[in-house]
Amino acid sequence: MPGTYHGFWKMTTNDNFEDYLKALDVNIAVRKIATLVFCDKDINQEGDHFIIRTFSAFRSYTMEFDIGKEFEEDLKGIDDRKCMTTVTWNGDKLECEQKGEVEGRGWTHWIEGDELHVVSMFFYHIVYSRTNYRHHVYE
């Protein structure tokens, strides 16, 4: 099994997020606010079971899943869609595929040193990236 993602991650960069939200048809007021706030992640990993909590002053979101098992994901508060989501390992990377009314949507997480990288895609070509640093490691 790949390394641990377990810990609290503070956001340092957020590139092309507004274009990504625009492609998802998120209204302009929400887009403007969302691009101003930093999103931190709390990742609890026990083997192939994950609970990822994303926090910001604007909203919080929790995603719980087991690697390789499809589940229904409710994106209320993001773009208000539901999709069937599957997260898998690709080497040391977590790769997510979200199937629903929006084609080609998903994300990849990977760790380099103490940095967590997140790249999300939409329609296979609108891409945004986010970097977080490991602020705290849980025992």
TrEMBL record:
UniProt-recorded Gene Ontology molecular function terms: lipid binding
All copies of domain Lipocalin/cytosolic fatty-acid binding, residue ranges: 7-117
Family of this protein: Belongs to the calycin superfamily. Fatty-acid binding protein (FABP) family.
Protein name in UniProt: Retinol binding protein 1, cellular, tandem duplicate 1
Taxonomic placement: Eukaryota, Metazoa, Chordata, Craniata, Vertebrata
